[in-house]
Amino acid sequence: MNPAYAVSICAASLAALVSLALPVAARAEEIHTVTVVIKNGRLDPQTIEVPANTRFKIVIRNEGPGPAEFESHDLRREKVLNAGSTSFVVIGPQKPGVYDMFDDFHPDTGRGRIVVK
């Protein structure tokens, strides 16, 4: 095979791969993201606001000394985190409303809400 021809095939293949990856990278950067910190059985902030009819991401950090569990029955999501860990949940588009969230390990103090506007 001609070396110049092989280089042009590789360059064309690379360009095609980059063009496929760009729309995915652009979508990943556009997702609305909020952070909730769980510490000593409390959620901070207790209320978060997100846009209606739009996917959003909740980053959860457990800064407490023990395990914590972010949970929302309304949104059908839960995530258990060890002490000092960080994770996230992605929620699909929601209608306007108020959705409960809580730390299942601290149900009396670890309560909050997600306001979708």
* DSSP helix fraction: 10-25%
> Please, how many domains?
2
Broad shape:
flat
What is the CATH topology descriptor of the largest domain?
Immunoglobulin-like
CATH class of the largest domain: Mainly Beta
Measured on Cα atoms, how large is the radius of gyration?
21 Å
Could you give the topology of this structure?
Layout: H1 3-30, E1 32-39, E2 42-44, E3 47-50, E4 56-62, E5 68-72, E6 77-81, E7 86-91, E8 97-103, E9 111-116
Parallel strand pairs: 1-4, 3-9
Antiparallel strand pairs: 1-2, 4-7, 5-6, 5-8, 8-9
Could you list some keywords that capture this structure?
117 residues, 1 helix, 4-stranded mixed sheet, 5-stranded mixed sheet, 24% helix, alpha+beta, Immunoglobulin-like
Model description:
By secondary structure, the protein is of the alpha+beta class. The protein has one helix at 3-30; strands spanning 32-39, 42-44, 47-50, 56-62, 68-72, 77-81, 86-91, 97-103, 111-116. A five-stranded mixed beta sheet has the order 3-9-8-5-6, with no helix packed on it. The chain has a four-stranded mixed beta sheet with strand order 2-1-4-7, with no helix packed on it. A hairpin with a 2-residue loop joins strand 1 (32-39) and strand 2 (42-44). It starts with a helix and ends with a strand. The mean pLDDT is 86.
